[in-house]
Amino acid sequence: MPPMPPRPAIVWFRDDLRLSDQPALTAAIETGAPILAIYIFDEKSPGLRAPGGATRWWLHHSLTSLARSLERIGGRLDILSGPSLPLLLDLARAADAQAVFWTRRYGAAEIAIDKQAKADLSDAGILVRSLNGQLLHEPWEVQSKLGDFYRVYSPFWRAAQARPEPAPPLPAPSKMKAAVWPKQAPKTVALESLNLLPTKPDWAGGLRDTWQPGEAGAQARLEAFLDNRIGQYASLRDRPDQPGTSLLSAHIRHGEISPRQIYHATKHAQHQHGLPARDCDKFIAEIGWREFAHHLLYHFPDLRSRNFQPKFDAFPWRDPQAQELSAWQGGQTGYPIVDAGMRELWQTGTMHNRVRMIAASFLVKDLLIDWRIGEEWFWDTLCDACPANNTASWQWVAGSGADAAPYFRIFNPVLQGQKFDPHGAYVRKYVPELAKLPDPWIHQPWDAPEPVLKQAGIELGRDYPKPMVDHSRARDRALAALATTKTDMA
Does residue 64 sit in the same domain as residue 161? Predict the structure, then answer.
């Protein structure tokens, strides 16, 4: 009688689409078992938020990259579509799996699915291991002296830095053995059948020109940043007209690179090449903000739908008019720095972080539109639409979140443009109808003398919109709205 084949182990990929520093994959391979590497596209389970359009585009290419990487070391990626829990359980039973491995997630619905899966699989005699592959420190590891979670970033990050240094990243496995797909298991689907790519119309041309999704693209971005740009990060990170940022956020969002890899690569580059500590520390602190956002999401599961500070529940948001919302979404507000950011977002699936704050402030404070409406638009159009970072950042701008900017801190789009895009290079790139406008008027074309506008080929209201609101009056309106609720918000 032939020997029974070894029972397989299942690796359930989620937001960790890489081979290097992939604890779940490494742990599964170390068992010596053949591997079923799976991805479940789940838009059916209760509470899960469907990915936006830009994220779907990125996911298609990231899964393609992951599948090729697994094939190179002898593995295979199998894709399932539907509710995660029954699919995972049916596969584990059909395969007679000995173990299931996954990387932890921190959203409430995701945690609920994982807890139930762990209970059901354990009841069936299957080993389950969940591992940390997304954060430097787990949310329950960084606590205040009172045993509570931090609501302000600075003390949070000091406490996180006081902990033992994150472990070095794991190397990518050099080989693995793919298990045979069980006959009675759920049917796999082709990646193309998920319809993640836009077709009618195909609006992703700018994304294709801008990005290389996948683990190799993530590593190339990090290396280029550490080799060429991190030395001026602290001084240039707020300048959208300069290539001063890492452009890693979408890669991090999909788990094509881990925070531990970024942390240790940055520390190595700092010590190996004598890079300024100020710049390296500032860059790592931005990873710390992402960390903070995930800790908030874990401890405050309703972060996307509820004000973190309940006193903002009484705030009198305006019902947005379709025309004004579409003007903001399409980069037609009449404020060049806002419009440049919104057009960059639509064209490339990203937006410079400083400009994100300016554009968000304009919606929330100049137009008095609820931050949740802006968050929804960013969720659909950002390649890096992270359930923790996106929401925490919108609440920060709105003043309703943890460690939030006070509501009365209202970004002036003209002054912000003049300070961070002083020669208008960023505006000219994304708002080409203003390209011939001289520097003194590039951020306030409505103040330009008529001969200057004529020379630049601009007629306001025809070639470029007049400002949809007067910022000074909009600021007064926002402060008045705040005053009407100050008793409740005290």
Answer: no
| 328-337 per-position pLDDT tens digit | 999 999 999 9
pTM for this prediction: 0.96
Catalytic residue numbers? 286, 289, 317, 353, 371, 394
In a domain, 423, yes or no: yes
The CATH number covering residue 221 comes to: 1.25.40.80
User: What is the tens place of the pLDDT at every residue in 437-470?
Assistant: 999 999 999 999 999 999 999 999 999 999 999 9
Q: Is residue 359 part of a domain?
A: yes
Q: Which of 299, 329, 346 is the last residue of a domain?
A: 299
**What's the chain look like in SS3?**
CCCCCCCCEEEEECCCCCCCCCHHHHHHHHCCCCEEEEEEECCCCCCCCCCCHHHHHHHHHHHHHHHHHHHHCCCCEEEEECCHHHHHHHHHHHHCCCEEEEECCCCHHHHHHHHHHHHHHHHCCCEEEEECCCCCCCCCCCCCCCCCCCCCHHHHHHHHHHCCCCCCCCCCCCCCCECCCCCCCCCCCCHHHHCCCCCCCCCCHHHHHHCCCCHHHHHHHHHHHHHHCHHHHHHHCCCCCCCCCCCCHHHHHCCCCCHHHHHHHHHHHHHHHCCCHHHHHHHHHHHHHHHHHHHHHHHCCCCCCCCCCHHHHHCCCECCCHHHHHHHHCCCCCCHHHHHHHHHHHHHCCCCHHHHHHHHHHHHHHCCECHHHHHHHHHHHCCCCCCCHHHHHHHHHHCCCCCCCCCCCCCCHHHHHHHHCCCCHHHHHHCHHHCCCCHHHCCCHHHCCHHHHHHCCCCECCCECCCCCCHHHHHHHHHHHHHHCHHHHC
Note whether 333 and 219 are same-domain residues: no
How confident is the model over 185-215, as pLDDT tens digits? 999 999 999 999 999 899 999 999 999 999 9
CATH of the domain at 35: 3.40.50.620
Q: What is the pLDDT of residue 490?
A: 46
